[in-house]
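Technical appendix A lists one of the benchmark inputs used to test multi-chain prediction within the project. The record comprises two sequence entries:
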Amino acid sequence: MDLSTSMTIAASGMRAQSSRMRVIAENIANANSTSPTPDGDPYRRQVATINSEFDQQLGATVVEAGKPVEDQSDFRLQYDPGNPAADKQGYVKLPNVNPLVEIMDMREAQRSYEADLTVMEASKTMLSRTVDLLNK
Amino acid sequence: MTIAPSAAAAAYNATAKIATQSGAGAAGESGFGDFLSNAIKDSIGTLKQGETMAAAQAAGQADMVSVVNAVNNAEITLDTVVAIRDKVISAYQSIMQMPI
């Protein structure tokens, strides 16, 4: 039935957005993670990928969270000679995470999730109101 | 005017024959009974899936969204089955209360 299919599609969107949220949480939590050694790299920012996929069994295009990809942009450098991760010049490599970008990504994931929730709620209401017709 | 009991029995037999013939023809394609039992089998499957997902969630093996989806489907299916059952029972009662 089309309405329960749309509920399943909305559920796939919600799943994808929650996996995106997990990647964002990792980025925010690791925004200050440095390497334990001076020559190592700090935490590298992950970018969540979302793909559309045709579900044969369902007969509809659903959303799937892809594998997170590493952000290859440069690390931030900070002068901090006392840090164990500092190089000979006293610079520490910090993760390429920009909290502002992460917060905006988080907002977007939140709103997309809410949109999927609304679709689910509307489909459910449509279905149950139709069933209610039998009760009259 | 009088009606012989044997004539009435013959008329009843003729009608019954027609009824069984048409009934058999319909059952060959897809009878109402088949339709009903298929629908009920489907809904039992949906309900079972909802239960399985809820149990998996309790064991920490399923994500919340799948559980909500499965339970939602089960709820709507159960509502539909109950509504149809009520309708069928009320139809049956209307027939039983029919003055003969």
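The mean pLDDT of chain B is 77. The interface with chain A takes residues 63, 65-66, 68-69, 72-73, 76, 79-80, 83-84, 86-87 of chain B (CB under 8 Å). Comparable benchmark entries are summarised in Table A2.
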